[in-house]
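TA notes, week 10

Several of you asked for a full example with nothing omitted. So below is the full record: structure tokens for the whole chain, then the designed sequence directly under it. When grading your own attempts, check the secondary structure regions first.
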């Protein structure tokens, strides 16, 4: 753990499926000694597997549940990784306007092996083509919310964490 950095919390990680939000968030939190919250994991804890929620109740219901969890997480002093589509909710976009937001990007080429074997409902049938269409549609939203972006395609998690820490000006 680094005791020479202190970040304004929460710090929020956004970006498409497979960009590394959970892995990076976990490592960033450990590095600065902050709690880590993965909103997808909280949804699963409280409501069960995400693919089951999509299957039984549909995406609209999932977004309502997700918003509840995200609103709660953003009130905590933590590093928070949001599910890729959490930014679709207008109230979440409002919340993020006043928080430090990091956009993790990734190329389709680099993400393809990361998503292999994934059970994410939105790409279950469309694969990488579906991923590309979704991430292109959401790019303007991520861009409007983020303080800066980092391409995770070829960087190690350690390097990404260093870059985020530096960009957030966490040195005291
Ligand atoms: C989704 C992304 C997933 C998860 C759900 C929907 C999306 O999270 O919340 O499958 O709409 O992009 P990750 O971005 O962590 O994969």
């Amino acid at each position: 753990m680094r005791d020479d950095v202190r970040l304004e919390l929460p710090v929020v990680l956004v970006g498409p499926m497979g960009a590394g939000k959970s892995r990076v968030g976990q490592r960033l939190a450990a590095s600065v000694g902050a709690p880590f919250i993965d909103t997808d994991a909280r949804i699963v804890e409280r409501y069960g597997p995400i693919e089951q929620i999509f299957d039984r109740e549909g995406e609209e219901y999932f977004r309502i549940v997700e918003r509840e969890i995200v609103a709660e997480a953003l009130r905590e002093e933590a590093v928070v990784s949001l599910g890729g589509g959490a930014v679709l909710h207008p109230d979440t976009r409002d919340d993020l306007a006043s928080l430090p937001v990091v956009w993790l990007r990734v190329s389709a080429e680099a993400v393809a092996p990361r998503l292999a074997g994934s059970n994410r409902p939105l790409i279950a049938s469309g694969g990488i083509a579906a991923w590309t269409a979704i991430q292109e549609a959401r790019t303007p939203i991520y861009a409007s919310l983020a303080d800066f972006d980092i391409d995770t395609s070829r960087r190690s998690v350690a390097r990404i964490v260093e870059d985020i820490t530096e960009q957030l000006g966490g040195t005291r």
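The chain has one domain: 11-165. Use that as a sanity check on your answer.
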